[in-house]
Amino acid sequence: MTSGLRVVPVEDLPEVRPGDVLADLLAAACSIETGDVVVVTQKVVSKAEGRLVAVADEAAHRALVEAESVRVLRRRGRLVVSETTHGFVCASAGVDVSNVEHGWAALLPVDPDRSARRIRAGLRARTGVDVAVIVSDTFGRPWRRGVTDVAIGCAGIAAVVDLRGTVDALGRELEVTEVCVVDELAAAAELVMGKSASIAAAIIRGVDPAWLRPSSVNAEVVSHPSEDLYR
Amino acid sequence: MTSGLRVVPVEDLPEVRPGDVLADLLAAACSIETGDVVVVTQKVVSKAEGRLVAVADEAAHRALVEAESVRVLRRRGRLVVSETTHGFVCASAGVDVSNVEHGWAALLPVDPDRSARRIRAGLRARTGVDVAVIVSDTFGRPWRRGVTDVAIGCAGIAAVVDLRGTVDALGRELEVTEVCVVDELAAAAELVMGKSASIAAAIIRGVDPAWLRPSSVNAEVVSHPSEDLYR
Question: May I ask the CATH architecture of the domain B52-107?
Fold first, then answer.
């Protein structure tokens, strides 16, 4: 068991408040090495960035979801699936009331790729170490029960790894080839977080160094309506 | 870095042929411990189970995709997104020609949960070790570019972990609560496989022992049309 990946929770991150500098809190809470991928949940990024809004009641919450949506795709009961200004399609436009103080809701970061770049630059400034950063969130998906974590922002790592043109083990050109590695890394990180344990970050060590390059979720993962079979 | 997960590729699995007993090949290729999750790709499971069909040309391939589909959801050019007999929604009904000999296609296993149970029982019989088994496949998804690996079958592990009713760090009941851990584990495994390196299995060590219980993807992940907003 010497090769492969390690996925380790960051256990000692304190409760995050508006104005906190996440890179400082992360640098104090864990030890990072060059090439690590640091996955941070949207919730603490939104808190640090002050993306908290008072919601007096369910009507206020509903209005907030509408305001954060550019288009509603599906409704059923209290569930609203909509497209956010970022182009994400998710429940409640990412407006979230869990792990937030009662009477408040957390909105998605304005630009989660920029959030990831800022955390990455802060960690480099404080530690001298070059890591990749992923901001993750928990999304449902069509046709399959259960939620999984995906990447809503990234920095210093390819969002999608294009294997097009490479050949498989039998020497044939591969057909399905663009792997969304940042979503897979976000999913792997979620496995060590635990929804109720208040672990909001994880470190993944051992990713392919070839993946470490400038990239963004917005440019590489969010699909354009013109190419999207589902909008 | 002592807690958390390790994700390790199984490097020494030989080329799999119809009639091979996967549990034998896996037991010879890697060392497993109680509580490990063994993730095996659909491709080798389909090969071992003889789910290979000759496809003379593109018309034959198209006919095969139709035959494997109960319903076509979307078409664009050569891309067909359809629902399989299992209830999976994926490209080409899971019919796959990569990493298969030229002129042949691999179909999905008839019952991937049963495939996982068989591998699990075989590993226990040969090694005395209780592991969980996930059969994974590579699916696209709406609204996001790139493919990720998901679970199409499982044994000995909860497909979905229900955190409903548990409380978050601030003592409030959680809202989004059913996490599809088998999809997240399949995604984590894909990260060490590499499409062209012909690595078809991985071992994940360190998962929460509370997740290790009888389950199936069919019962817990495949959503019923009645509850599905997207069919």
Answer: Alpha-Beta Complex (3.90)
The single-letter DSSP state of residue A74 is E
pLDDT of res. B1:
43
Q: B124-149: per-residue pLDDT in tens?
A: 999 999 999 999 999 999 999 999 99
Residues of B in contact with A205 (CB under 8 A): 1
Across the interface, whether the CB atoms of B138 and A205 are under 8 A apart is answered no
Q: Give the Cα separation of B120 and B214 in Å (integer).
A: 11
Q: What is the value of pTM for the model shown? A: 0.94
Question: Strand B37-41 vs strand B132-141: parallel, antiparallel, or unpaired?
Answer: parallel
Mean pLDDT across the stretch A196-207? 88
Encoding tokens for residue A11? 């256990």
Token couple for A223: 């699909």
Report the C-alpha gap between B197 and A180 in whole angstroms: 17
The answer to whether A38 and A201 are in contact (CB under 8 A) is yes
Tell me the residue ranges of DSSP E strands in B142-179. Answer: 144-155, 161-162, 178-179
Whether B66 and chain A come into contact, CB under 8 Å, resolves to no
Counting beta carbons within 10 angstroms of the beta carbon of residue B53, is it exposed (0 to 12), middle (13 to 18) or buried (19 or more)? middle
A188 φ, ψ (degrees, to nearest 5): -60, -40
Does B76 sit within 8 Å of A169, measured CB to CB?
no
Global ipTM: 0.94
Q: Which fold has domain A6-50+109-221?
A: 60s Ribosomal Protein L30; Chain: A; (3.30.1330)
Instruction: Nearest by CB to B191, from A89, A185, A223: name it.
Output: A185
- Indicate yes or no: CB of A196 within 8 angstroms of CB of B169: yes
Tally of residues, chain A: 231
**Reported CATH class of domain B1-49+109-219:** alpha beta
Cα A75–Cα A80–Cα A81 angle in degrees, nearest 5: 95
